[in-house]
Amino acid sequence: MSLHWRAALNRPRSMDQAVSTPITLAQLAAGSSAVITQIAGGHELHRKLRGLGIRVGTQVRVEHRRGSGLVVSVGNSRIALGGGIGEKLLIAPAAPQARAAPRATP
User: Fold this and answer.
1) CA distance 60 to 39
2) Contact 54, 79 (CB under 8 A)
3) Residues 6+ apart with CB under 8 A from 89
4) Which pLDDT score is estimated for 5?
5) Cα–Cα distance measured from residue 53 to residue 23, given in angstroms and rounded to the nearest whole number
6) Of 38, 83, 41, the residue nearest 62 (C-alpha)
């Protein structure tokens, strides 16, 4: 009896290591940051996103939402994305950035 390959992917590998369900950019709350881990689309989507500066490993921040669409910041740019594209971008939460200590003035 063989397991379906999707069932095998979702099954924990050991008792200590559970498999987490990936979340999409469309599920991220406004004001939150994340890193793109996977783009679930074809060549044209990859090309379009590369032109916008979005690729695997890019850190993005959701600035605000309107309906299913969202506006994200990538570096110093803001980019409007439709909900369909947001659903195809799998993410991992971004590590919090350390704030620089205020400089003492002499």
Assistant:
1) 14
2) yes
3) 24, 25, 26, 36, 38, 39, 40, 49, 54
4) 42
5) 21
6) 83
| One-character DSSP codes across 12-28 | -SSSS-PPPPPEEGGGS
The string of DSSP letters for 29-42 reads PTT-EEEEEEE-S-
For residue 104, what are the CA distances in angstroms to 4, 76, 98? Answer: 62, 28, 18
Which domains does the chain possess? 21-93 (2.30.30.90)
How does pLDDT run across 33-74, given as a tens digit for each residue? 999 999 999 999 999 999 999 999 999 999 999 888 999 999
Q: Of 18, 11, 62, 57, which Cα lies nearest the Cα of 38? A: 57
CA dist 103 and 85 (Å) reads: 42
Q: What is the distance between the alpha carbons of residues 94 and 62, in angstroms, rounded to a whole number? A: 12
